[in-house]
Design goal:
Length: 296
């Protein structure tokens, strides 16, 4: 229950960052990007139909596919995100628009590119927070999450491929290639920020621990840090004494905890820590490449 509550709390924070970016920076400067939010923005620029309503209607259709492929747990959180983002877009527009119903230009007139960058970074960070907490804002995020479930493709890159067509369609609304270029800049910055947040959360580290108290250290790491430990046989070449080496793979955020455990038991232990690019298996990421079929 605490883990689920934590997920929903951070999903809400990520959604707020995403909605704030749209209402404060992207919509006032008529900047679009990919996803169902981008489609909704284009509809808004062309017809004036509120962005939150078209966003909700499009996602209602896509959720039928997500429920079967990604499972009810993903669908429940995505449904929550869709309703919450719709409400946030509605509330923030009501809060920020002036008496005539127009968006104020927070950065001043002519600051389209700066608004594009700031809004894209906020969108990417918000999406990253949502994704690492097992949520989604719907739309092309659902498509990206489905493909990412089976193939080892980064989420940001997958969303980019899905959204190129949406951004290109901006030209038919504004007949201005500058708007299309701003849309692509926004898309790439969102993808970069999204991958940075997701990959930072999944960074892993590897420990080599040399200590005479290796048994106590291994037991504490198993019990308190909930990480597996492998014991290797080694020999100090100078002393010619046999030593035991503990090998531990853990999430980066657990580094301080493991160092404290080692220091409490053996302050003189020799510890080596290194970053690893990827760890796959139980307790970490799942291997998503398909095995080759053997010929008969």
């Amino acid at each position: 229950m605490l883990r689920e509550l934590r997920d929903y709390t951070f999903i809400t924070v990520g959604l707020f960052s995403y909605a704030l970016a749209w209402v404060v920076f992207l919509l006032p400067y008529q900047i679009s990007t990919g996803g169902t939010t981008g489609i909704s923005a284009i509809i808004y620029y062309a017809t004036g139909f509120p962005i939150q309503y078209s966003y909700f209607l499009i996602n209602a259709v896509l959720m039928a596919f997500a429920f079967k492929i990604l499972g009810p747990r993903f669908s429940i959180k995505t449904t929550y995100a869709i309703f919450m983002l719709t409400a946030m877009l509605e509330f923030l527009q009501w809060l920020i628009k002036d008496a005539d119903g127009n968006f104020p230009l927070i950065l001043g007139p002519g600051q389209d590119f700066m608004a594009c960058l700031i809004g894209a970074v906020m969108c990417g960070i918000g999406l990253g927070i949502v994704f690492i907490n097992n949520g989604s804002t719907g739309g092309t995020d659902i498509i990206a999450a489905i493909i990412n479930k089976y193939r080892d493709v980064t989420l940001g890159r997958m969303i980019m491929l899905c959204d190129v067509f949406i951004i290109s369609s901006c030209y038919f609304i504004f007949e201005d290639w500058r708007r299309v270029i701003f849309g692509f800049v926004t898309l790439f910055v969102i993808g970069f920020a999204l991958d940075y947040v997701v990959n930072s959360a999944r960074q892993s580290v590897q420990f080599f621990i040399f200590s005479k108290e290796y048994e106590k250290i291994a037991d504490r790491i198993n019990r308190d840090a909930h990480r597996g430990v492998t014991v290797l046989n080694g020999m100090g070449w100078y002393s010619k004494n046999e030593v035991k080496v503990l090998v531990v793979l853990a999430n980066k955020r657990q580094s301080v905890e493991i160092f404290r455990l080692v220091k409490d038991i053996d302050p003189n232990a020799f510890v080596s820590q290194s970053s690893v690019i990827g760890v796959y298996g139980e307790g970490f990421d799942r291997i998503k490449v398909k095995a080759k079929k053997q010929k008969a």
